[in-house]
Amino acid sequence: MSTIAVLGAGKIGESLLSGLLNAGYSPENLLFTERYQQRAEELTKRYGVRATDPPTAARQADVLVVSVKPQDIEPLLDEVGELVTPDKLVVTLCAGLPTSMFERRFTSGTPVVRVMPNTPMLVGEAMSAVSGGTHATESHLDLVEGMLGSVGRVVRIPEDQQDAVTALSGSGPAYFFYLVEAMIDAGILLGLPRSVAAELVVQSAVGSATMLREGEGHPVIMREGVTSPAGTTISGVRELEKHGVRAALIDAVEAAHSRSVELGAKHRQETDSDGA
C-alpha cells in the first residue's frame, strides 16, 4: 500500500485522513503536516497518524496530497520542490492552481493530479472532480479516484473545466447554506422557534437531495410535483422569480468561476513565460 502524506491538515486535509482510515488504510501508511504543534498533537492522538515536516513527508511518501490554501502554496513548494521526483504522485486540492504550475516546480516528469473537492468531505459526502496533468497516467487517476471515493463521489473531467467545477460544486455548499439560513429566518419571522424552523428546513433539504440522487426525475418535474394549481407553493415560486433568485444564483456561480480563473492566472502566465 502506498504511503500517503497530506500536506496541510486543515478541515479538508483532516477529512481525507479520516476517510482513508475508514477505508482501510493503516495509520502507518499515512503522514500529515500541520504548522500548529498543538493541532498536530491533537490529530495524532485522534487518528494515530504521525505528524512530520514537509521535507520529511516529501522524502518518505509515495503520494503527496497538497491541501493548503492557494496563498500558502509558494512557501510549501520552496520547501519540497527539489525533493519531489517522478516516482511520486502529487495530488493538489488547491483551488484555481493548474497542474502546470506544480509540474514546473518539481523534477521533470513528475505526475500531478488536480482535484476540486468540497466541504461535505467532512461527513463523507464530498463531490470531487479530478483531472490529470501532463504526466499523470490512468493508474494515477485510478489511485486518486479510489482515495477520494472513501469520502464521497468522484467524477473525472478535463482540466480546463476545473474552474467551472470550483464555482459550482466547490463553492456550492455555501450557496445551499445561504438558502437554508434564509429559509430558517423566514420560519422565525412566521413565529416558529429557531430549533423547529431549522429542523423543518434541514430535513426538507436532506429529503429533497435524496430524491434527486435516487433519480426520481428532473428538478423541474420534481418541483412541479410540489406545485399545485393556485396553491401555496406557486405563490412562493412566483416571488422567487419576481426577485430574480434564479438569475442571482447563476450570477453567483459565474462570479466564483471568474475568481477561480483569477487565482490561477498568475501561475499560468508564469508557466507560459517559462516555456516561451
UniProtKB/TrEMBL annotation:
Residues 3-95 form the Pyrroline-5-carboxylate reductase catalytic N-terminal domain. Its main location: cytoplasm. GO terms for molecular function: pyrroline-5-carboxylate reductase activity. SUPFAM superfamilies: 6-phosphogluconate dehydrogenase C-terminal domain-like (SSF48179), NAD(P)-binding Rossmann-fold domains (SSF51735). Residues 159-263 form the Pyrroline-5-carboxylate reductase dimerisation domain. The keyword Amino-acid biosynthesis applies. It catalyses: L-proline + NADP(+) = (S)-1-pyrroline-5-carboxylate + NADPH + 2 H(+); L-proline + NAD(+) = (S)-1-pyrroline-5-carboxylate + NADH + 2 H(+). It holds the Pfam family P5CR_dimer. InterPro entries: 6-PGluconate_DH-like_C_sf, NAD(P)-bd_dom_sf, P5C_Rdtase_cat_N, P5CR_dimer, Pyrroline-COOH_reductase. Keywords: Amino-acid biosynthesis, Cytoplasm, NADP, Oxidoreductase, Proline biosynthesis. NCBIfam families: proC (TIGR00112). Catalyzes the reduction of 1-pyrroline-5-carboxylate (PCA) to L-proline. Belongs to the pyrroline-5-carboxylate reductase family. This is Pyrroline-5-carboxylate reductase. The lineage of its organism: Bacteria, Bacillati, Actinomycetota, Actinomycetes, Actinopolysporales. The gene is proC.
